[in-house]
Design goal:
Alpha-Beta Plaits, 238 residues, 3 domains, Structural Genomics Hypothetical 15.5 Kd Protein In mrcA-pckA Intergenic Region, Chain A, four-stranded antiparallel beta sheet, single chain
Length: 238
């Protein structure tokens, strides 16, 4: 079956679909001995010989078994597959699954739920979906007034120019110095929750993702992980 090259490369577990596109435009991908630089080019992995950086990836597709992991990321861990400075990454917490990569991101100082997989098509569908809610528990410095929270609920333009969609925000307990909120988003702009509160003049001091779709942190301590069931995987893409 003919499929886009970036999808085939991602499905082989080489890298994400977005990074596969970069490899193609850089001339590092060939099909049947011919270098391909045009995005959107299709191939059939069952009949075409596909190489990335000179290495045939067809055997990876034949042996590949789809993996779906739910990790409770602790604070102070990099959300990347490797770090040139040798700092601890999420891959130090999830071993023995071969080449997997995160779906979305949590920054260094954030914690909570993160999905890892070797299924590029699944990762792309979940990351781009507007039907999979991401739920965060957020602690901010100070006490935002109701008009500021309402601005976040309606959607606003961030300092980087991104316009947020409406968000569900529930006010939780608070102290004299801090306020807690539960924030539900249907999008995943880079560091979005932190930037949202920055835009109304309040800094996030603690951020934890406690839900992705129907998935919750129940039973997972920080640093622990488990495999997703077939039903859980289906619920994220159906």
């Amino acid at each position: 079956m003919q499929e886009r090259l970036q999808k085939i490369i991602a499905n082989a577990g080489i890298t994400s679909r977005r990074k596969a596109e970069v490899l193609i435009t850089e001339g590092k991908v060939s099909v049947n001995g011919k270098t391909v630089k045009t995005l959107g080019t299709k191939a059939d992995a069952s009949t075409d010989h596909i190489k990335v950086n000179g290495k045939l990836i067809n055997p990876k597709l034949e042996k590949k078994s789809d993996t779906y992991i739910l990790l409770n990321k602790p604070k102070g861990i990099l959300c990347t597959v490797s770090d040139p400075d040798g700092r601890k990454t999420i891959m130090d917490l999830v071993r023995g699954y071969g080449r997997i990569f995160p779906v979305g991101r949590l920054d260094y100082n954030s914690e909570g739920l993160l999905i890892l997989t070797n299924d590029g098509d699944f990762a792309n569908r979940v990351a781009s979906s507007r039907k999979v809610p991401k739920i965060y528990r957020v602690k901010v410095k100070g006490q935002p007034k109701q008009n500021a929270i309402n601005r976040l609920r309606r959607g606003l333009r961030l300092h980087d120019g991104f316009k947020t969609a409406p968000a569900e925000i529930k006010e939780l307990q608070s102290t004299k110095k801090n306020a807690w909120f539960e924030v539900t988003l249907l999008e995943g702009h880079n560091r979005q929750v932190r930037k949202m509160f920055d835009a109304v003049g309040f800094s996030v001091v603690k951020l934890k993702r406690v839900g992705i779709g129907k998935l919750s942190e129940a039973g997972l301590q920080p640093g622990e992980h488990r495999e997703l069931s077939k039903e859980e995987v289906k619920s994220l893409i159906s």
